[in-house]
Write a structure and sequence with these properties.
- With 387 residues, the chain is mainly alpha-helical.
- Helix content is 62%, strand content 5%.
- The protein has 11 helices and 6 strands.
- The strands form 3 sheets. The chain has a two-stranded antiparallel ribbon with strand order 1-2. It has a two-stranded antiparallel sheet with strand order 3-4.
- Strand 5 and strand 6 form a beta hairpin.
- The longest helix has 41 residues.
- It is elongated.
- The N terminus is likely disordered.
Length: 387
């Protein structure tokens, strides 16, 4: 019943040679590297299926991204693993020995994607035909980066599912000692490599792998059909989910696989997931009709410049009104010549107040006009697929 490559039983002493799947000449192919490869292939295949068959958007930008993203993911995962202390800097390029932190791979790849997709999707050949909401006539739209986020990011969970089995063959990522006889029987027959240092250990890699596989199905198929979701939700939920999963499993890890920086990283992932999800629902999805960078710049300019000027103008107006009230009180007990002089001054103050009010109104109208310049017409809207 040892269904994983008929691995030797618990009495077998595992050595580095057991980490090798096969040889090609003098080159050894490790189980860890093989499962990481399977993970990349599975994530790419399901990402392509989502983009091509389900979303019906151009797949070429994703193909080109894979050529850059895979090396970036491996480099980022190894870099982060060295930062955590899971791998040594002097053996940075020894990938087959394990030591790839998924958080680093995802962070580096996301940074690359944030540059690549907005850049490449501007090309006319990657635009798609859609129907105008106003006229119901065909229009050509540029696809939003968030469409690719929803299609690609959930597939990372499938890659992680395969990657965790690489940890199994390296006898990594295990938890406390198992005391339940029934569960020991299951480990003996199905996961014999969890017999470490003469004791059976909880297979944390297995828990995380199954949890990731189940949630991948939820994101890939389940939440996808929810009608009220916003474009970008699937990609954002991934970060929230994985942060919560890692935070819950981290305390169970064996001491040699526990790193203080991991709690910081997972905490950031959870916080970022919550913040981004709220922003996507209550801000980002509501300002899509604007050209975002210019619109935000106009709002900042108005907040920093116009509102400051308006405050100064209103303060000056209040000062003039106070002065006017004081002069009005003086005019009651003044003689004819003083009264005329005070009246002229009040008229001048009224004129100044009127001019200030006009300037405030003009500034506000100018802001409204500038803001409307950045409103996209229906034909200029990006293709989001969802709300």
């Amino acid at each position: 019943m040892n269904w994983l490559i008929a691995v030797p039983g618990p009495d077998h002493i595992y050595t580095d040679s057991d980490k090798i799947a096969f040889w090609i000449g003098n080159i050894s192919i490790a189980w860890y590297g093989l499962f990481v490869f399977f993970g990349f292939v599975a994530a790419i295949v399901f990402g392509v299926i989502k983009l091509w068959k389900w979303y019906k958007v151009p797949v070429d930008p994703f193909y080109w991204f894979c050529l850059m993203g895979i090396p970036m993911a491996i480099f980022g995962a190894r870099f982060w693993s060295c930062c955590l202390g899971d791998a040594q800097w002097n053996s940075f390029w020894a990938f087959k020995d394990g030591g790839l932190a998924i958080e680093g791979g995802v962070m580096f790849t996301v940074l690359l994607a944030c540059w690549w997709f907005p850049f490449i999707l501007k090309r006319p050949k990657y635009q798609i035909r859609d129907l105008s909401k106003d006229t119901s006539k065909p229009v050509v739209r540029r696809v939003s980066m968030w469409v690719y986020v929803d299609a690609i990011v959930p597939c990372i969970l499938l890659g992680q599912f395969f990657g965790r089995w690489g940890n199994y063959f390296n006898q990594e990522l295990y938890g406390p000692v198992v005391t339940n006889d029934s569960f020991c029987w299951f480990l003996h027959n199905c996961l014999p490599r969890m017999y470490i240092n003469g004791e059976w250990h909880h297979p944390l890699f297995f828990y995380e792998a199954i949890a990731n596989l189940c949630f991948f199905i939820v994101l890939y198929v389940g939440i996808e059909v929810v009608p009220c979701r916003k474009c970008g939700d699937l990609g954002i939920i991934y970060f929230l989910w994985y942060g919560v999963l890692r935070m819950s499993l981290e305390p169970l890890r064996a001491s040699q696989y526990t790193f203080d920086l991991t709690y910081v990283t997972t905490g950031i992932w959870i916080a970022a997931g919550i913040i981004m999800l709220l922003l996507n629902w209550f801000l980002i999805s509501k300002i899509r009709k604007y050209a975002p960078y210019y619109y935000v710049w106009e709002q900042i300019r108005y907040a920093c410049v116009n509102r400051s000027n308006n405050s100064k103008l209103k303060s000056k107006k209040r000062t003039l009104e106070n002065k006017k009230n004081s002069l009005s009180e003086l005019s009651i007990n003044s003689n004819t010549s003083e009264y005329k002089q005070i009246s002229d001054e009040i008229i001048q103050i009224n004129n100044n107040i009127f001019n200030l009010q006009n300037k405030i109104v003009i500034d506000n109208k100018t802001h409204e006009v500038n803001a409307k310049k950045f409103v996209r017409t229906d034909e200029q809207m990006l293709y989001y697929r969802n709300k």
